[in-house]
Amino acid sequence: MLVSALMLFAHKIGFDPTSITHYYLGDGELLLQKSNEGILKLILPHIFAFGVLSFVLIHFLIFTSYKKKRYTFSVIYILLTTQTLEIFSPFLIINISEYFSYLKLISFVFYMALIPLIFFWLFKSILED
């Protein structure tokens, strides 16, 4: 899942704030500007998928020995914040400023880094018990 997400992001959008801006605002040649309706159609299934994934991971994490660690709740809050920013940053790019493409890139990278971290903690807690 993470590998396909990284490959799709790299292929369709790119890991550069300029290419993210061009993807959402258009470049005048190949890409057309995305509309709010188009973005809504794109993010609607992602809201549910991200929500279910986070719900399951967070609940499994709470039932491990990591629930007593102080940084666990920080990671949970960062996960929820980055997924929210990842989903809704296209609206900010289209309607407010192209500089939110930096926010889109940072939130995507953090979200993709936190998911394997939580999986690692889950598997590590299984092996320790």
Short account of what is shown:
The protein has 129 residues and is mainly α. The protein contains five helices and no strands.
The major β-sheet equals: none
- Gross morphology: elongated
Unreliable stretches, pLDDT < 50, 5 or more residues?
A: none
Q: Taking all residues together, what is the mean pLDDT?
A: 88
Total tally of structural domains: 1
What's the order of the H and E elements?
Answer: HHHHH
Structure keywords:
5 helices, 129 residues, 0% strand, mainly alpha
Can you tell me about this structure?
By secondary structure, this protein is mainly α. The protein has one domain (2-128). Helices cover 80% and strands 0% of the residues. Keywords: Membrane, Transmembrane, Transmembrane helix. The chain crosses the membrane at residues 39-63, 75-96, 102-123.
